[in-house]
C-alpha cells in the first residue's frame, strides 16, 4: 500500500511539474492571494530567499519542497486564473527615484565616499555622493522619507446616448524601470519583516493577558532567535552566507573564561582634568545620552572573507577590515578624550579596523591631532560597510514607530534585539548561528569612535567635554542644543537621567584652570 501511495505521489508531482507556471506567474499568484514569501517559505519548509529565487527564475523547486509548492501553485491558479486577474496599475514612485542623479563612482565601479550628509532620497545620513555632489545612497534599500500617496483617477463622465465613441486602441501600461522595481521590492520586504516584529509583540501581550512586565520578559527571552530570523530575512537575496564563517586567528579567541579578550576596543573613561565634582563651583554641566549607540554602530566596515595575515601596512586598505597590532601615536590633548581609550600600559596593542580608521583620520591633514599609528601586523579580508545596513534600517524604523506610538513594549523588545544580536555574535552559548567575534569587537569599537566624533564636534563648537564614558555618555558645558538636536531619534541626543550624582544638569568646580 505504501508503494502504491508513493507511486501516486510521484505521478502527481510529475503532472504538476509538467505544467508549472513560469516565474512571473508564480509571483503573480502569490501576490494575488496576498501571501508573503515568509508564509510560502514556512509552508514548503524552505527559506524566504529560496521562494524569491523560484519567483525570479534563479532556481527551480526541488524535492522535498517541490510537491507542496506545486500543489500551492495549482490551487492558487484555480482561484486566480490569469484571464480574470485584474492588471494592477504601476505604483507611484517618488520623483527622487527617477529624477535624482546616479551615484558617483570611481574607475573601478565602486561608489565614492565624501562628507556625510542627509541622503536626497530618504533623508538618512550617508557618506556616498551623487554625480552632482549631493549625498545619495548607492544601495536599493534607500527608501523615500515620504512616499507619495497613489493618485486616484475620477471616473470619466458617461458619453451621450446618441453618440457612438470611436474605438480606442488600448495603451500598454508603462514597464517599471529597474530602480522602480528595486524600490518596490525593498518596500515589500521591509513591510514583511516589520510585520514580524508587530506580530511577536501582539502574541506575547495576548499570552500575558495584558501584563506588560510578563510580556516584556517573554520578548527579551526570544530576542536572539527573533533578531536572527529578521537578519536572515534581510539577507534573503544576498550572495554572502555569513554562516560560512572562516577559521579565526588565535588573537580573536578568548584565552579563557576569566581572561579578558585580546582585542582592545578603545572604551573611554575620560574626565577633564580642569573640572572636579569634589570641588565646589557653579559651572553648569549637562549629562547627555546618545540614543541607540550600538544600533548606529551597525553601519561599519565588516570583513566578509577569510582573514589573511600581513605585516606592516600591507593589509591596510579602505576596502579591507579586521584587526591590527599597532603602536598608537602620543596623545597630547588632555582636554579631549584619547581616541584609544584609557590604558594602563603603553606600547603595542591589538585594535579593530574601526579604531584604526579613527586614528588615521586624526593623524591626517584635516585634524593633525596625533602621529599616525605604526602598524605591525594585521588579520584582514575584503569588507563591506553595508552588510548589516538593511537590519539596521529595519530596527531603526521599528524603534521610531514605537517611540511615536508611545509603545514601550515594542521599544524595549527592539532594543533587546539589536543589543543581544551584537553581544552574542562572538563566542556565545546563547547564539549558535553566528560566531564572529571580529564583528562584535569592530561594532563595539565603532560605537566608541562615533561617541568620540560627537565629543570633538562639541569641542569645536566651544563646549568643554567634562566627561565621556561607555558608548553613549557625554557630559558638556554650555548650550549643547546649538550643537545637537534634542530628541529620542537615532541621530539625536537627550539629557541623561539616572541614579548617580552626575546625571541631568549639575554643577562642578574648576581645578587649576
Explain what the structure shows.
Helix 7 (178-207) packs across helix 8, helix 9 (223-234) packs across helix 13 (408-423) and helix 11 (353-362) packs parallel to helix 14 (437-460). The protein contains 14 helices and 15 strands. With 513 residues, it is α+β, with helices and mostly antiparallel strands. The longest helix has 30 residues, at 178-207.
Task: Using brief descriptors, characterize the structure shown.
513 residues; seven-stranded antiparallel beta sheet; six-stranded mixed beta sheet; 15 strands; 36% helix; 14% strand
Tell me the layout of helices and strands:
Blueprint: H1 2-18, H2 23-32, H3 37-44, H4 48-56, H5 66-79, H6 95-99, E1 113-118, E2 125-128, H7 178-207, H8 212-221, H9 223-234, E3 263-264, E4 269-271, E5 275-276, E6 283-290, H10 293-296, E7 302-303, E8 308-311, E9 320-327, E10 349-352, H11 353-362, E11 374-384, H12 389-404, H13 408-423, H14 437-460, E12 465-469, E13 473-477, E14 493-495, E15 505-510
Parallel strand pairs: 3-10
Antiparallel strand pairs: 1-2, 4-12, 5-15, 6-13, 6-14, 6-15, 7-11, 8-11, 9-10, 9-11, 12-13
Helix pairs in contact: 1-5, 3-4, 7-8, 7-9, 7-12, 8-13, 9-13, 11-14, 12-13
Amino acid at each position: 500500500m505504501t508503494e502504491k501511495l508513493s507511486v501516486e505521489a510521484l505521478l502527481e508531482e510529475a503532472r504538476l511539474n509538467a505544467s508549472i507556471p513560469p516565474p512571473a506567474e508564480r509571483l503573480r499568484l502569490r501576490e494575488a492571494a496576498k501571501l508573503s514569501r515568509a508564509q510560502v517559505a514556512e509552508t514548503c519548509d524552505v527559506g524566504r530567499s529560496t521562494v524569491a529565487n523560484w519567483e525570479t527564475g534563479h532556481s527551480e523547486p526541488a524535492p522535498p519542497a517541490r510537491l507542496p509548492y506545486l500543489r500551492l501553485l495549482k490551487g492558487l491558479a484555480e482561484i486566480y486564473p490569469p484571464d480574470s486577474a485584474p492588471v494592477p496599475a504601476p505604483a507611484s514612485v517618488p520623483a527622487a527615484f527617477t529624477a535624482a542623479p546616479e551615484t558617483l563612482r570611481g574607475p573601478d565601479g565602486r561608489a565614492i565616499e565624501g562628507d556625510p550628509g542627509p541622503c536626497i532620497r530618504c533623508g538618512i545620513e550617508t557618506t556616498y555622493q551623487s554625480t552632482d555632489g549631493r549625498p545619495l545612497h548607492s544601495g536599493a534599500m534607500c527608501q523615500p522619507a515620504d512616499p507619495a500617496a497613489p493618485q486616484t483617477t475620477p471616473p470619466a463622465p458617461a458619453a451621450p446616448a446618441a453618440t457612438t465613441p470611436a474605438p480606442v486602441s488600448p495603451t500598454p501600461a508603462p514597464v517599471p524601470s529597474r530602480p522602480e522595481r528595486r524600490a518596490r521590492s525593498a518596500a515589500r520586504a521591509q513591510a514583511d519583516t516589520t510585520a514580524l516584529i508587530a506580530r511577536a509583540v501582539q502574541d506575547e501581550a495576548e499570552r500575558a493577558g495584558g501584563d506588560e512586565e510578563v510580556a516584556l520578559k517573554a520578548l527579551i527571552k526570544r530576542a536572539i532567535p527573533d533578531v536572527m530570523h529578521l537578519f536572515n530575512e534581510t539577507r534573503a537575496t544576498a550572495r554572502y552566507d555569513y554562516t560560512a564563517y572562516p577559521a579565526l586567528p588565535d588573537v580573536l579567541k578568548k584565552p579563557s573564561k576569566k581572561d579578558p579578550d585580546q582585542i582592545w576596543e578603545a572604551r573611554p573613561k575620560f574626565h577633564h582634568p580642569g573640572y572636579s565634582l569634589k570641588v565646589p563651583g557653579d559651572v553648569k554641566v549637562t549629562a547627555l545620552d546618545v540614543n541607540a549607540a550600538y544600533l548606529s554602530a551597525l553601519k561599519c566596515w565588516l570583513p566578509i572573507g577569510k582573514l589573511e595575515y600581513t605585516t606592516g601596512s600591507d593589509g591596510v586598505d579602505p576596502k579591507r577590515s579586521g584587526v591590527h597590532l599597532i603602536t598608537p601615536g602620543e596623545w597630547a590633548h588632555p582636554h579631549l578624550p584619547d581616541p584609544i581609550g584609557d590604558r594602563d600600559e603603553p606600547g603595542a596593542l591589538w585594535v579593530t579596523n574601526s579604531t584604526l580608521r579613527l586614528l588615521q583620520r586624526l593623524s591626517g591633514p584635516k585634524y593633525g591631532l596625533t602621529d599616525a599609528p605604526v602598524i605591525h601586523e594585521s588579520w584582514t579580508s575584503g569588507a563591506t560597510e553595508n552588510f548589516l545596513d538593511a537590519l539596521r534600517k529595519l530596527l531603526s524604523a521599528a524603534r521610531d514607530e514605537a517611540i511615536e506610538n508611545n509603545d514601550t513594549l515594542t521599544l524595549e523588545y527592539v532594543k533587546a534585539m539589536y543589543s543581544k544580536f551584537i553581544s552574542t555574535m562572538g563566542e556565545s552559548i546563547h547564539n549558535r548561528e553566528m560566531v564572529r567575534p571580529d564583528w562584535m569587537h569592530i561594532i563595539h569599537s565603532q560605537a566608541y569612535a562615533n561617541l568620540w566624533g560627537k565629543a570633538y564636534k562639541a569641542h569645536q563648537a566651544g563646549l568643554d567635554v567634562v566627561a565621556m564614558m561607555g558608548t553613549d555618555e557625554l557630559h558638556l558645558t554650555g548650550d549643547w542644543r546649538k550643537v545637537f538636536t534634542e530628541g529620542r531619534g537615532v541621530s539625536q541626543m537627550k539629557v541623561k537621567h539616572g541614579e548617580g550624582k552626575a546625571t541631568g544638569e549639575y554643577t562642578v568646580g574648576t581645578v587649576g584652570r
